[in-house]
Amino acid sequence: MATNLEFIKSASGTSVSSLDVTDCFSDKYDVYYVSATKVDIATNYYNFVRVINSGGVDSGSNYDYGALQLTSYQNFSQVRSTTATSWFYSSWQSANASDGVGLGVYIFNPYDSSSYTFMTHQASGFNSGSGMLGFKGIGVHHTAEQITGINISSPYNYDNITINVYGVK
Amino acid sequence: MAGSLIKIDEEIVTSAVASVTLTGIDSTYDVYMVKVNNWKTDTNDRQCLARVTESGTPNTTANYDYAGKGLRSDTTFTNRSGTNGTEFKFEYIGTADSQAQSNLTLFLFNFNSTTEYAFITNEMSNLDYLGNAFGTQGGQVFTSTGTARDGIQFFMSSSANTSAGTFTLYGLKK
């Protein structure tokens, strides 16, 4: 049987600080791949990843993460939390027009209301004036509830941002 | 619609089993991917493990090496490494926390070869038996040659059972 990494939904924004992809998770898939591309931002900062539940974007202290911050210009460092309000260290974005970022996130079990939602992520970005700055990490949204979408945000406005969601069939 | 990720085998566990075997690796594809989600066990503090299979039989010889970084939410990250083990090693789950489970993405290289070592890369996101987010990212190798490997068998340490999980094998279309 032929299957695929099946495209589900895309969302794009300009001059926004937050972008939702709603109703992209369903009972059709257990595992999803989410990519963020074409990202330009006004001010250097991290990109936050959050889930969307029945109440909207969940900004509660329901996120655990552990990530290794990898740079081309200094020692690697560890970042972690058990009480975060987002998967905070998903990726880094610099403000220069050329300093995009590539972020890929695998999401596990989001639509299963009896299970926590799990993720792994990898990101490669550029820290202006320094060099490459990327992350490899894991995360758990430690609330057993049905998750229907994903959100990426920053305290600062994105000039552009595109999120694509695929199902791993 | 035909895609680039071709499903070959899938096992869905809903009641306790000693092991789960995915088969169908041959020369059709160069690289295979395994997706595991919601892998749970019936015993606390047990390690998720795997072995290559040859003609459907797991190879239990001491030819498995691994190295990775254990990423976790609660404390300093852990280096995971070892040589001459008898299985591929992942992380520990259990029953002390009802949500404890493993979610894995593996890529399998050279499994069908009789002359090359078999390699895997692994990424995982788990909730360990203490309720902490914990997942190792790294690589592992099976260093015995002479027989093509046709699958991979998943099991728990110390004869614990797998009580739940969806295990899927894909080929990456050439």
Quick structural summary:
The complex is a heterodimer of chains A (169) and B (174). Chain A is an all-beta fold and 169 residues long.
Task: Give descriptors for this structure.
heterodimer, A: 169 residues, mainly beta, Jelly Rolls, 12-stranded antiparallel β-sheet, B: 174 residues, 8-stranded antiparallel β-sheet, 5-stranded antiparallel β-sheet, 0% helix, globular
Description:
- The complex is a heterodimer of chains A (169) and B (174).
- Chain A is mainly beta.
- Chain A has one domain (10-168): Jelly Rolls (Sandwich), CATH 2.60.120.
- Chain A contains no helices and twelve strands.
- In chain A, strands 1, 2, 3, 4, 5, 6, 7, 8, 9, 10, 11 and 12 form a twelve-stranded antiparallel beta sheet that branches.
- Chain A is globular, with a radius of gyration of 15 Å.
- Chain A starts with a strand and ends with a strand.
- By secondary structure, chain B is an all-beta fold.
- Chain B has a single domain, classed as Jelly Rolls (Sandwich), CATH 2.60.120.
- Chain B is 0% helix and 60% strand.
- Chain B is built from no helices and 13 strands.
- Chain B has strands at 5-13, 19-23, 31-41, 46-54, 57-58, 64-72, 78-85, 88-93, 101-109, 118-127, 133-142, 151-156, 162-172.
- Chain B has an eight-stranded antiparallel beta sheet, with no helix packed on it. In chain B, strands 2, 4, 5, 8 and 12 form a five-stranded antiparallel beta sheet that branches.
- In chain B, strand 9 (101-109) and strand 10 form a beta hairpin.
- Chain B is globular and about 40 Å long.
- The two termini of chain B are 16 Å apart.
- Classes of the chains: A mainly beta (169), B mainly beta (174).
- At the A-B interface, strand 6, strand 7, strand 10 and strand 11 of A face strand 1, strand 3, strand 6, strand 9 and strand 10 of B.
